[in-house]
Design a protein that fits this description.
about 625 residues, alpha+beta, Neutral Protease, domain 2, Immunoglobulin-like, nine-stranded mixed beta sheet, hydrolase, Alpha-aminoacylpeptide hydrolase, ERAP1-like_C_dom, peptide binding
Length: about 625
């Protein structure tokens, strides 16, 4: 059995096809018992069956394997759980026959308070502390049955109830069999709940469950869920795959939420909204978290990652598309300006020399938690947005729908999505995106004008000021004097030079900010690279181009996202000693009349950053105030 220790993945000699699970939770004693019948295909000679399991008590005498082609029943000689690896190894006394059979396992477990597996959560009802049972877990179908459920409690699983039998004060609840799905998406919740209910336009029943007395606080999330399901059905060109969607508020939950198929569990603060007492920021959080988890019903559940190395694709994509959905439902929020916080957090973390690539090879189950960070979520979301911006929204959506249809009810890798986008766009998506997902960090793009040419250089940015040797294929977007004049190209080398007249239809002149005039001799007053901050990189402008952008900021010619980006890049470059503090201080004066919240928030951060205070002399700090408020 020792040969299976430390292995990152289960061996392939036995393939599960269906699970028939019976559970009997005891909320008073905080334990549970149960059994599972697994339809198993033995595809190679083996004396072993290896399964994922943790904190379960399994006795070899309670396990059997019956081969479908004979009446013989095989009993294991040994059953051992390796907790560090999260596996149960069953050793049989002889080779198991090739073909289909049924593996039966009886088990017991503890409803612990570790907020993973099948665990207990506590809540108060009429002043009394009570327990509820909650789950947090090769594609297969699942038939779930719960025994001994107290009749006053609500028992939920991924699918609707098929049959419910009352035996005294306890119920046996059986659920409709699931479609093919990953084991980690199986969910069971047993507790005392209120709920609110609605339906989508195509008849999907949607409910929000919460503690008794809090039903009204679930109405906003219910509205968001119904509208988001309808929006995603259209965007992905594939209907929501299940007949119902339940969302449950859990008082103590390890994550903000978990996207279990058809039964999404949330921390209360991520699902409930009190119209009388909650802040507006809470409302936006509920909307984006619900939109994020429902995106997983397609991107993660219907199409599941092939291995945890591809986790970033699930989480990065769901983060990006949650903003897309929220912006569609609540355009007045201008949520894409708030997405800049996601971008800034990703840039900050990935600017460290200790960062890691988006795609991280996972070799052990214990390593999985380590990749749930701002690189997977925030950088992942930004590079997805960068790609969508470069390819175009229509091409991106059409290719994405093709990917989901092709890989529905199966596994997929990052490369499968790139292949679909490459086929739909004709662009070298795989080569382009590998440069962003398989190496850490990002570039700073230096831009200058010289002899009728626009020159671009890329170097790896580190916030420490050191210089790395990374190189990327960078989707460059730029506007010249107006957002109506927008050009794209791929920077594939360390340096590249573009002819301004050929590329932008302009020629270099002496008059005006930036020294650029168009072919009709009208002034093209500024050049902005990384339009609307859709790219995951920083931009450094030569002095003349920087002066033109300051002038554009003062004249309110740039969007709030670009005003944010210019400031954020300048601050980061100054802190990394890649440009002078004098240039940052001069830039700050252009924001004297700034009114946008997200830009002001970043402006305040720049002005009071402790690192800046330590690096600048008192005269420089005084100069900030003079430049900000002197007219």
């Amino acid at each position: 059995m020792e040969q299976f220790k430390g292995q990152p993945r289960l061996p392939k000699f036995a393939v599960p096809k269906r699970y028939d699970v019976r559970l009997k939770p005891d909320l008073a004693a905080c334990k549970f018992g149960g059994s599972v019948d697994i339809d198993l295909d033995i595809v190679a000679d083996t004396k072993f069956v290896v399964l994922n399991a943790t904190e379960l008590f399994v006795n070899a005498g309670s396990v059997s394997f019956a081969h479908g082609g004979s009446s013989k029943v095989f009993k294991p000689t040994k059953a051992e759980t390796f907790e560090d690896d999260g596996i149960l190894v069953l050793e049989f006394g002889e080779m198991l026959p090739i073909g289909s059979g049924i593996l039966v396992i009886e088990f017991e477990g503890i409803l612990n308070d570790k907020m993973k597996g099948f665990y207990r959560s506590t809540y108060e009802h009429n002043g009394e502390k009570k327990n509820m049972a909650v789950t947090q877990f090769e594609p297969a179908t699942f038939k779930i049955t719960l025994d001994g459920v107290p009749s006053e409690l609500v028992a939920l699983s991924n699918m609707p109830i098929q049959e419910e039998k009352l035996n005294g004060h306890q119920n046996t609840v059986s659920y409709v069999e699931t479609p093919i799905m990953s084991t980690y998406l199986v969910a069971i919740v047993v507790g005392l709940f209120d709920y609110v209910e609605d339906h989508t336009s195509d008849g999907v029943k949607v409910r929000v469950y919460c503690q008794v007395g809090k039903a009204d606080q679930g109405k906003f999330a219910l509205h968001v869920a119904v509208k988001t399901l309808e929006l995603y059905t259209e965007y992905f060109a594939v209907p929501y795959p299940l007949p119902k969607l339940d969302m449950v508020a859990i008082p103590d939950f390890a994550f903000g939420a978990m996207e279990n198929y058809g039964l999404v569990t949330y921390r209360e603060t991520a699902l409930l909204f009190d119209e009388q007492h909650s802040a507006a920021a809470n409302k936006q959080r509920v909307a984006t978290v619900v939109a994020h988890e429902l995106a997983h019903q397609w991107f993660g559940n219907l199409v599941t990652k092939e291995w945890w190395t591809h986790l970033w694709l699930n989480e990065g994509f769901a983060t990006w598309v949650s903003y897309l959905a929220t912006d569609s439902l609540f355009p007045e929020w201008k949520i894409w300006t708030q997405f800049l916080d996601e971008v800034a957090a990703g840039l900050k973390l990935d600017g460290l020399e200790e960062s890691h690539p988006i795609e991280v090879e996972i070799n052990h189950a214990a390593e999985i938690d380590e990749v749930f960070d701002a690189i997977s979520y925030k950088k992942g979301a930004t590079v997805i947005r960068m790609l969508q911006s470069y390819l175009g929204a229509e091409v991106f959506q059409r290719s994405l729908a093709s990917y989901i249809k092709k890989h529905a009810y199966s596994n997929a890798k990052t490369e499968d999505l790139w292949a679909a986008l490459e086929e739909g766009s004709g662009e070298p998506v795989n080569k382009l995106m590998n440069s962003w997902t398989q190496q850490k960090g990002y570039p700073v793009i230096s831009v200058k004008v010289k002899d009728q040419k626009l020159e671009f250089d890329q170097t790896q940015f580190y916030s420490s000021g050191s210089q790395g040797d990374g190189q990327w294929i960078v989707p460059i977007t730029l506007s010249c004097g107006s957002y109506d004049v927008r050009k794209n190209f791929l920077l594939q080398a360390k340096s590249e030079t573009l002819d301004i007249k050929e590329f932008l239809g302009c020629s270099v002149g002496k008059a005006g900010c930036g020294g650029i005039s168009n072919k009709d001799n009208a002034l093209c007053s500024w050049i902005k690279v990384n339009v609307d901050q859709t790219g995951f990189y920083r931009v450094k402008y030569e002095d003349e181009l920087a002066a033109a952008l300051r002038n554009a900021i003062e004249k309110k010619q740039l969007s709030e996202t670009d005003r944010f980006g210019i400031l954020d890049d300048s601050f980061a470059l100054s802190m990394a000693r890649k440009q002078s503090f004098a240039s940052l201080l001069t830039l700050l004066s252009a924001y004297r009349e700034e009114l946008d919240y997200i830009v002001l928030s970043n402006l305040i951060t720049v002005m009071i950053a402790p690192a800046l205070c330590l690096c600048c002399c008192i005269d420089d700090l005084g100069l900030i105030l003079v430049l900000m408020f002197h007219r």
